[in-house]
Write the structure tokens for this entry.
Amino acid sequence: MDNMIVSVSPHIRAKDNTSTIMRDVLIALLPAVVASVIFFGFMALGKEIVCVACCVFFEWLFEKGMKRPNTIGDLSAAVTGLILALNLPVGIQIWQIVVGAAVAIIVVKQLFGGIGKNFLNPALAGRAFLFASYAMLMTQWVTPAGLKGTAVDAITMRDYPLIQSYVVWMAIIYVLVNLITDLLYHAMDPRIRLGVVQD
């Protein structure tokens, strides 16, 4: 027992840094982005791009104004923007996206010291602020483009063959999007090998 060493964490070290972890998170969110475009059209993609751009801009603006080192290269603001965008209804106005991004980045993240020092998840705090401010808009549900009419009627009328075909179609989309994500991940990180490892 005398030769046990007590030290502070982390006990397992890796060469990953914040930007590579955030890049991996962005890659992991790609299937959700593709699904949002399939279900809600390119309007959803446009709002996701606006939200990411606003979060990156507000982080740059706050750090420039406070004369802090620029940290937009770590991609944490982009992750916050994408998570916030994926949590918002597709019918939200652009100016409300800007307000949510400002609250998420400036109020929740930067005023408490930046990444790792905030007491709340910035994206979800931005969503909570928008929900408290614009409850009517934030609770309106838009029927996805692929589910208009037929799928909703199939569920209400218990048309099981049609429901099964929708489930199979969504499973195929899910598998294809994950395959594309894996291939992109392999292209971005050559350490990942495709194929089966044999012992």
User: Anything to note?
Assistant: The chain has a mean pLDDT of 83.
